[in-house]
Specification:
Largest sheet: 8 strands, mixed
Radius of gyration: 18 Å
CATH class: Alpha Beta
Bound molecules: 3-(4-hydroxy-3-methoxyphenyl)-2-propenoic acid
Number of domains: 1
Strand content: 15-25%
Structural class: alpha/beta
CATH topology: Rossmann fold
Shape: globular
CATH architecture: 3-Layer(aba) Sandwich
Helix content: 25-40%
Oligomer: single chain
Order of helices and strands: HEEEHHEHEHEHHEHEH
Length: about 325
């Protein structure tokens, strides 16, 4: 056959993905975001566990202290170029303290600026920290397309292999750079990995493979780059012992939901504790912002705290 299944899929999905960055709204003449990916079949456990927060979660407040967002450069040995990442340091950042770090990964049409454009994590964290809902943390937003030209140009699907290669850049270049330049706690209990779509797949793939490096993992609307569940979690009991938090979320209008459902069904069957939050959004920035908001509030908190482990499903 000239057009195999994947190629056909790509032709259908490509025009949509190219608009992913541009807007969260459906555009005239284009199918809505939710149409992207495939049929949506919801099961009884595909429900919303965390309510939609109000839009003001990312509103800049003048009555609180603010952190700092800076675009830094680093030499990547794995890619062989100078690369960029966006780094948020919390209010009153001080080298007298050691901070936990959340590494936050973007989607197929994005780059190191995407999370900032979609969700302003700096504003969100400033607000959460001021309200004592999140612990002061550093948020690192690198570029997950580990190739020399890492701009989201042309056929963004062609760069899918570079998203896989990012594992080396993350472990051997990004994390060491952050740990040399910032005052951070360097044990697994103080390192989290999460992302949206391709970045969600990367977070599950790399995070669950390297539980010696990450204890907190999140995948929001994870893309088809997500490994099969038995590859992700070949030893459920071991994974359970090591994980502090595994967050999976997807919108019930997102045509990629089958990817997260497949992972979630396996985790439930193997009794690996996790959070499964299905809201009513699509493959869009509102879903990513809202789920980052809830995920960030669980991070680096005591495992026995009722806000964390007891909410995880078996
Ligand atoms: C695909 C559909 C969507 C795919 C990746 C995506 C690698 C990624 C979407 C995104 O990051 O928003 O078939 O294959």
């Amino acid at each position: 056959m000239l057009f195999d299944k994947h190629f056909t899929c790509l032709i259908i999905a490509l025009p949509l993905v190219l608009t992913l960055d541009a807007t969260c709204e459906a555009q005239p003449g284009r199918p809505p975001r939710g149409a992207f990916g495939g049929p949506i079949e919801l099961g009884p456990n595909d429900t919303q566990r965390y309510p939609d927060p109000p839009d003001n979660i990312v509103q800049e407040r003048t009555d609180i202290s603010h952190g700092k967002l800076e675009m830094i450069e680093y030499e990547s040995k794995s890619v062989g170029t100078t690369r960029k990442m966006n780094v948020y340091t919390p209010p009153e950042y001080s080298t007298d303290k050691k901070y936990p770090v959340l590494y936050l990964l973007h989607g197929i049409g994005g780059d190191e600026t995407e999370w900032q454009r979609f969700a302003t994590p700096d504003m969100m964290l400033d607000n959460l920290i001021a309200d004592r809902k999140a612990v002061p943390m550093i948020v690192v937003m690198p570029n997950g397309r580990a190739q020399k030209n890492d701009r989201a140009e042309g056929n963004v699907f062609a760069a899918a292999p570079a998203f896989e290669k990012f594992e080396d850049d993350l472990l051997n270049d990004v994390i060491p750079t952050i740990e040399t330049r910032y005052s951070v706690a360097t044990d697994r209990a103080h390192r989290a990995l999460a992302g949206l779509s391709m970045g969600g797949g990367q977070s599950l793939n790399f995070g669950l493979k390297h539980l010696d490096r990450f204890a907190w993992i999140g995948g929001f609307s994870s893309a088809p780059n997500t490994k099969s569940p038995d590859e992700l979690v070949p030893h459920p009991a071991e994974t359970t012992k090591q994980l502090e938090l595994l967050w999976l979320s997807c919108g019930n209008q997102d045509g990629l939901i089958r990817i997260s459902q497949r992972t979630q069904r396996y985790l439930a069957e193997k009794q690996v504790p996790h959070i499964w939050n299905v809201d009513s959004h699509g493959h869009d920035a509102t879903h990513w912002r809202n789920n980052l908001y809830h995920f960030a509030q669980l991070l680096f908190q005591d495992r026995n705290d009722e806000s964390n482990a007891s909410k995880a499903e078996k």
